[in-house]
Design a protein that fits this description.
two-stranded antiparallel ribbon; about 30% helix; about 160 residues; alpha+beta; 7-stranded antiparallel beta sheet
Length: about 160
């Protein structure tokens, strides 16, 4: 089986901290030429980005910042424009059903190149409460302490 070539452009690390992720989807993204060139240079920011399903049953990503291409001219793009995500109809219908449920959100996790095409990992997630975040931090600290103790013991 051929090895898949994936080059990560940008990652939304804060999303895994702020949301409980239930399911992920891989979506293509409709871009202009200068946007792709800018992404190849690694100039993207997913910090405050989110996705929504429109009334026309299309999925768009908002607040995804792709910097203007350095060598672009009058054909350069708007850095914060909304971009259409390319998903199968069955996946969109599933998302429509889930997003109507209380509390579900579509959160972009990663932006990457796969076989020369720009893809986005999109998550169906629910926002964490403050006590959930504290629990996660306590578990992480306990695990770190345990690993340190084992490491010191093996010396």
């Amino acid at each position: 089986m051929a090895e898949q070539k994936i080059k990560i452009i940008a990652e939304n690390r804060k999303a895994r901290h702020d949301f409980i992720i239930y399911e992920t989807f891989e979506a293509g993204i409709a871009l202009t030429g200068t946007e792709v060139k800018s992404l190849r240079a690694g100039k993207a920011n997913m910090k405050d980005s989110y996705a929504q399903v429109t009334r026309q049953a299309e999925v768009f990503v908002y607040n995804l910042h792709i910097s203007p291409y350095d060598h672009g001219n009058i054909f350069n793009h708007d850095p914060l424009r909304s971009r259409r995500l390319l998903l199968h109809r069955a996946e969109i219908n599933k998302l429509i059903g889930k997003v109507k449920e209380k509390g579900y959100a579509l959160v972009p996790l990663k932006l990457y190149f796969k076989h020369g095409l720009v893809k986005m990992e999109l998550a169906l997630a629910v926002g964490k409460k403050l006590y959930d975040k504290r629990q996660d931090m306590a578990k992480r600290d306990a695990k770190r302490e345990m690993e340190r103790a084992l490491k010191d013991r093996n010396r």
